[in-house]
Amino acid sequence: MEITTTKVLIGLIGDEDGEVTAHRAIPPALKIAGDSSSLQVDYEWIPTSSGTVISAKLKEIYDGLWCVPASLYKDVRGALDLIKTAREQKIPLLGTCGGFQHMALEFAKTRLGLEEADNAEENPDASMPLIAPLVCSLVEVSDNIYLKDNTLLKACYGQQTTHEKYHCRYGLNKDYIHLFEGTELTISAHDKDNDPRALEISDHPFYMGVAYQPERSALENHRHPLISAFINNCSKIS
C-alpha cells in the first residue's frame, strides 16, 4: 500500500538574512516538527516588500504563516497587511519575537483603529509607543514564561511554566495592555515582572504571537511543542 504524505507549505513573513540566528533555526525547526507528525513541511520566504501585493492570494497558496524575528522589517506596512489578512481570513499564524510585536501593532492599528500606535524602534518620537524599549534588554537571555490558564498557549505546552530564549530589546508596552481588554485578543503569558510575553486569539484556527524565539530549540535538535502545535494545525487546514 502506498503511503501518502501530507504536505504543508508555510510562508515566512520577513526579510531573509542568513546572519540572523533565528532565520537559520526556522527551517530545521519546521522539519523537526513535521517529522514528529509524519508531515512534509516546506516553506517559502515572503519578503515584507511584497506583502500588500500578495495578501489577497495568501489563503490560496499557504497552509500557514510564520511572522519571523529580525526587526526592523524593510516594509512594515507590507508585513502588517500580511498579518491583517491572516487574522481576518483565519489563516494559521505564528509570530515570534519581532513577529509578536507586529501582531500586536496590526491589531491596535486595524482592529482597534488606533493608527497612532507605533513601534518606538522605528519611530522614537511616537505618541503611542505600543512597542517600546524593554527596561532590561533580553538579548541572548533565557527566562521563565508563565502561561495563563484557559489559553490555547497553555494547551500547546500542557504545563504552567516554560523556559525560553530571547533576543530582543523591544517589547509590548504594558501601559497599553488595557486597550485589548474586552476584545478577542488575549495576553496569554507573562514573565516574573508581569510583562506580557504572548498573545492569542481563541476564535481562530491558530493565532499566537510570543516574545521569545522557540525556533532556537532546533539548534539543539529539540522539538518545540508550540511549533509542533502550529504545524499540526496547519495540516488540518490543508
What does this structure look like?
The chain has 238 residues and is an alpha/beta fold. The chain has a single domain, classed as Rossmann fold. The chain contains 7 helices and 10 strands. Strands 1, 2, 3, 4, 5, 6, 7, 8, 9 and 10 form a 10-stranded mixed beta sheet that branches. Helix 1 (21-36) packs across helix 7 (225-237) and helix 4 packs across helix 5. It is globular and about 50 Å long. The mean pLDDT is 94.
Q: Secondary-structure element order, as H and E? A: EHEHHEHEHEEHEEEEH
Query: How large a portion of the residues is in β-strands, by DSSP E?
Result: 25-35%
Report the CATH C-level class.
Alpha Beta
The main sheet comes to: 10 strands, mixed
What does the radius of gyration come to?
17 Å
Kindly report the CATH topology. Rossmann fold
CATH architecture: 3-Layer(aba) Sandwich
> What level of helicity do the residues show?
25-40%
Distance between the terminal alpha carbons, to the nearest Å? 23 Å
Write the CATH homologous superfamily: Class I glutamine amidotransferase (GATase) domain
Q: How many discrete domains?
A: 1
- Give me the secondary-structure category: alpha/beta
Q: Per the principal axes of the C-alpha atoms, what is the gross shape? A: globular
Give a brief outline of the structure.
The protein is α/β, with parallel strands linked by helices and 238 residues long. Helices cover 29% and strands 32% of the residues. Strands 1, 2, 3, 4, 5, 6, 7, 8, 9 and 10 form a ten-stranded mixed beta sheet that branches.
